Amino acid sequence: MRAVKNLLVLYTGGTIGMLQTPEGLAPAGGFEARMRAWLDAHPEAPRPDWRLQEMSPLLDSANMQQGNWLAMRDAIVEAVKQDGHDGVLLLHGTDTLAYSAAALSFLLLGLDVPVVLTGSMLPAGAPDSDAWDNLAGALALFSQGLENGVQLFFAGKLMSGVRASKLRSEAFDAFAALPRHREGERAAELPTTLSYCQPRSPVNLAVLPMYPGIQAAHVRALLETGIKGLLLECYGSGTGPSDDEALLDALRDAGQRGVLVAAISQCMEGSVVFDIYEAGSRLRDTGLVSGGGMTREAALGKMFGLLGAGLDLATARHWFALDMCGERA
Ligand code: ASP
After folding, report:
1. How far apart are CA 77 and CA 192, in angstroms?
2. Secretion signal: which residues (predicted)?
3. What's this model's pTM, rounded to 2 decimal places?
4. Contact 160/326 with Cβ under 8 angstroms?
5. Which of 162, 182, 197, 212 stands the most exposed, by the fewest C-beta atoms within 10 Å?
6. 193 is catalytic
């Protein structure tokens, strides 16, 4: 834990800085001046020295794509390695904040600075907004001292970047890191091929929940799009319609085509333990890798970190099953 002295505030958009337009709230520039004005009016609020950088374009985070994760990763690495910043506060829309936090956790492995993501449910300046509380709370944490790695700070709670999800759309306390069964051996050492230095490229990934009515044809249609990774959100402890041979065949074919097929639980407090039910073991036997108790956000971000680095299927399966930064253990 060390106090940050030279903070980069990276502003990506989101409700926190949005202004009203005829079509509704939309991202707006000029947040640095508003933040300075608020801090000047609150000299008692602890904060390290900081400068603000705006990403371009500013986004409603509903529009975030893998390319934006890579752009954020580049801006953070440049700020640390070239400009000497020793901490980064990322201001981000809440809709996909947990996805970005998870993806960045894998894209920034080995970068020895704290990175905290925050945002707000109401715009800064709106009556009763949570914006300045979240921002000032995060600044105070940086000046007190934070562990290296990616975390999320919201409504007074500091959460691991690979454990949090947005649970609520109409409450200030929008994020939580729910208890999920943790399992997975911690990787002793991470290879340089998976560190922040490794360039990544966008990769075609899909997430598919199990639901009564899912068909082999649905899985096959996804495979036809050329996906390289398929994250299945199974029922409960990792089950699915295991008496549907056509569906099992489609999953088996996916693995044979070189697709990383992994399973997580669709229960917010669940985890995959295939062997509990025959309906789970039969799915596992198609070649699925267990994502244990990983959240959707963490599992998707991890798939991107692994496959986006160009790993072959066997190596990606190996790392997916190990704990790399607290996502499983
Ligand atoms: N739609 C907004 C966004 O994700 C919601 C928010 O920031 O709270 O950018």
Report:
1. 15
2. none
3. 0.97
4. yes
5. 212
6. no
DSSP string, 2-29: B--SEEEEEEEESGGG-EEETTEEE--S
Domain positions in the chain? 6-177, 192-320
**Residue 236 Cβ < 6 Å to ligand 1:** no
**Whose Cα sits closest to atom 7 in ligand 1?**
93
> What's the topology of domain 192-320?
Rossmann fold (3.40.50)
Token pair recorded at residue 321: 């099953």
- Of ligand 1's atoms, which has the minimum distance to the CA of residue 119? 7
Query: 6-177 sits in which CATH class?
Result: alpha beta
> 158: CA distance to ligand 1 center in Å?
19
* Cβ-based burial of 186 (10 A; exposed 0-12, middle 13-18, buried ≥19): exposed
User: 264 in ligand 1 pocket by Cβ < 6 Å?
Assistant: no
pLDDT tens, 152-186? 999 999 999 999 999 999 999 999 998 887 777 78
